[in-house]
Amino acid sequence: IMDAAADRGAAMTVRLAHVVNYGPYRRLPFSRQVNYDGTIIFNHFYGNYMPADPEYLAAWKRANRALYDRYKTHPGFQGYYVMEAGGESMILDKPWLGVVSGYSATMQDGFRRYLQEQLGLELDGLNRRWNAEFANWSEVMPPAPDFRSGAQPDLRLEWLDFCRFKTHLNNRFWFQTLIGDIRTYDKERVV
Questions:
Q1: Which of 1, 103, 138, 151 has the largest count of CB atoms under 10 Å?
Q2: pTM of structure
Q3: Kind and range of the H or E element at 80?
Q4: Sign, CA torsion 177/178/184/189
């Protein structure tokens, strides 16, 4: 296809994705989305892993690099179309169905990193912020949803921090990380 595009004076922006419904789960060893109750979330057509999984992110980096290595001199290679891995939102929250993601081990680690690196919190600052008494960072876990309030918003600061973390993963972290990695070896093509 890229040869045909180049033969006609056109170029392609390439999007990588896994869209095999639940097939990837059988073959790829990455961290699955885990609901607040500990169950695996299955309700997404494309299938999806946790964007905070370092191995998953590394696989996407390797895939983009392989694309570059293979086509870097090809006249039909215009650039990279970076999207959420599953093609839609990577965070599968549907609280009206009792589905609230973000409770896998990789997300717990990612949430702790977010609190420290993005919010700049030390453990004592987090304890003051959440009115908690954590002795070490390994005790810090994503908060459970509070469904008792019905349609009223959950305004607990720890819940808001967790929701912001997931928004950060979906809207900033994924794109900035992949685009930043691409720019280390390809400074010219469209991303």
A1: 103
A2: 0.83
A3: strand 77-80
A4: negative
